[in-house]
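User: Please run a holo structure prediction.
Assistant: Happy to. Please share the sequence and the ligand.
User: Here you go; the ligand is iron/sulfur cluster.
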Amino acid sequence: MRAERIEPARRILCVFPRYTSSFGTFEHAYPLTDGVQAFMPPQGLLLIAAYLPANWPVRFIDENIRAATKEDFEWAEAVFVSGMHIQRQQMNEICQRAHAFGLAVAIGGPSVSACPDYYPSFDYLHVGELGDATDELIATLARDPSRPEAQVALTTNERLPMTDFPVPAYELAEISRYFLGSIQYSSGCPYQCEFCDIPGLYGRNPRIKSPQQIIAELDKLRECGVTGSVYFVDDNFIGNRKAALDLLPHLIAWQKKTGYVMRLACEATLNIAKRPEILEKMREAFFITIFCGIETPDPDALKAMQKDHNMMVPILEGIHTINSYGMEVVSGIIMGLDTDKPETGDALLAFVEQSRIPLLTINLLQALPKTPLWDRLARENRLVHDDSRDSNVDFLLPYEDVVDAWRRCMAIAYQPEKLFARYAYQCEYTYANRLKVPVSPELKSWANIKRALIMLRNIFWKVGVRGDYRRVFWKFALTRLRHGDIEGLIASSMVGHHLIVFARDASRGRQNASNYSIRLREASVPAE
Ligand code: SF4
């Protein structure tokens, strides 16, 4: 439980590191918005900020929005950092900057929990989830905030029940600068896909918050100004199906009460298509997108990676079912699997056409620590420790062939004509199946109309006038305008623009082939 007061109070600076440019962070869409600068508010650091004793002043900086300044470091008595493997070098760099001011620096979150040895310079390693290690860190800093002589590793043995989690300190973040709002209902996943570190890090028995906590978080997000899309960052929204069914009526009631101000999105396994009772309630709660880790359309590959649950319904049928409830499917895809053949790229492109999924995050296989894949490849001596590569896996096919196939798939899948044809299908079929919600006063407000006008102006000018695929864009846009579908036009154009620009860079070798790759295209800063 959060302490009300611990004396003496310490001033804590929470710094979230910059992301490396990635397919899934949509940065090429930001210039089309009314000032978005970052992807989603980071749940972990905002949770820790809310958990700190109530009398401790906290400052939160997301370096995707602005860098922590000299004044921030001079204000602080200790610095907290959190992030994923892909932010490793940026986290080490923040540590160096804080040390220049003589500050103790603590690191928590998924990367250090999986790989403490990536962070030799930090003063405190917080390994694991919120729990007894967090209490110990707070007690230690209360006693003495100065840097310890040697690194101190604190490991959570007793996790705080999620029902005791405070509402993340969304009020500390510049919420309007984010592309999406974020919220977390559960943690962990019952499956054991070979490449995934979630079961190892967070367990196979999903832990959950109460529906009342989620409603309180939605209220707070709304108070902080979120009216667009909110993403449930849970690794698998139906990891505990009963819990999902318990939550959904509360979400439906909240949406009805507030006038459907938020569009919801989540991640879930594709076998959700077998659960019409869940899909129907999600439709009523105004879920509009589900990210499914389809990974590959090849059944042999799914079997080999222990993802048989993706085959509980034929994949295309599953996607169609989800679409029929008004929800667009976003798909994760992996290339470089042991089962890949020279023709895998063509099979994947055929799947993209048939599924009509607009957004597929196509990544090269990357072995993450704490996964069965890592252990297997280590046994087979197939882990490659070379940061100049796009993957740490020694593929069975020649490395250059796999990377070339990835570049080709990115180039073809995201050709503007092909992408906007898939979006046109989604507008006509999937979006048409969505709940018809009343237009709330909040959505009709002048502030909201002004936002939409700014976005339309940016899209028309930057894509429709100056863009090199303007002819394809106008064909799509005029149809949407004729249908009065401004929302479909804005959402598809913004995300579509990011995908097209990113895929072009990728196909020219200017982007990482894995969301998990720590390879940086800009100057990197090593650990001290
Ligand atoms: S279903 Fe998703 S979250 Fe669960 S183990 Fe597989 S990849 Fe990980």
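Residues 189, 191-193, 196, 198-199, 235-236, 269, 293 surround iron/sulfur cluster (CB under 6 Å).
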